[in-house]
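Slack export, channel: ligand-projects

TW: morning all. Re-posting the request from yesterday since it got buried. We need the structure predicted with the small molecule present, not the apo form. The ligand is zinc ion; the SMILES is in the block with the sequence. No rush, but it would help planning for next week.
GE: picking it up
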Amino acid sequence: MNQKQWKDRLPKLAFLLMLISCVVLSLIFLLRSTERLGSNAPAGLYTLVIDPGHGGFDGGAISDDGSKESDINLAIALKLRCLSELLGQPILMTRSDDSASGEYSQYSEHEDLVRRTEIVNETPAAILISIHQNDFPTSQPSGAQVLYAASEGSAELGRRCHQNLIALLDPQNRRVAEPAPKALYITSHVSCPAILVECGFMSNNFEVQKLCGGSYQCSIALVLAGSLLQYLNESEIL
Ligand SMILES: [Zn+2]
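GE: finished. pasting the full token output, ligand included:
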């Protein structure tokens, strides 16, 4: 390579070097943050229970293109599990594959919900994030909405998650975090801080496309993981 060729390539090489430095610095920062978080979260202080709604025989809401709510719920939940593991958080899943939460000879939605609720209530110092998708008779409604249980801490966690979902992913969304209706079994029957996140509408084809995409699922999981950390800090649990 002659001198001129070197000169031509210098800006590209400098940019590449800068990019590599940025990636290395980011990794060092991430690892240090993870170490700090890990050391601040002693085992047994709390356990994040992630509940991907529906599953197995029960696909939940089905979109026009045949996408199942249960699959989207699970995909987001598994990404949230990954991120939470990276942060050193103790985690439990009510299901981690395409099945209902228990073993039944005859599937019953009610028994499935009872079993999930038992898992939460049997977990010491649990914090529940249940993941679902919304549905409506018309295709217009869109946007995430967080519903929170009546138990202590639920409203704070719910509002934090909802605010961040809107601010970071969907600033046009005018929905607000609301108390979960009594008819929602799991949020009405657990005693720990508990929220149910409706990430979007299965009845809105544009939103379903986004919800089926890995990067949007990752963004939702990231917002939930970050919001939980904020809640833990604000509640002085961490
Ligand atoms: Zn659902």
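GE: first-pass observations. Residues 83 and 173 are 25 Å apart (CA to CA). The domain at 45-234 is CATH 3.40.630.40 (Aminopeptidase).
TW: perfect, thank you
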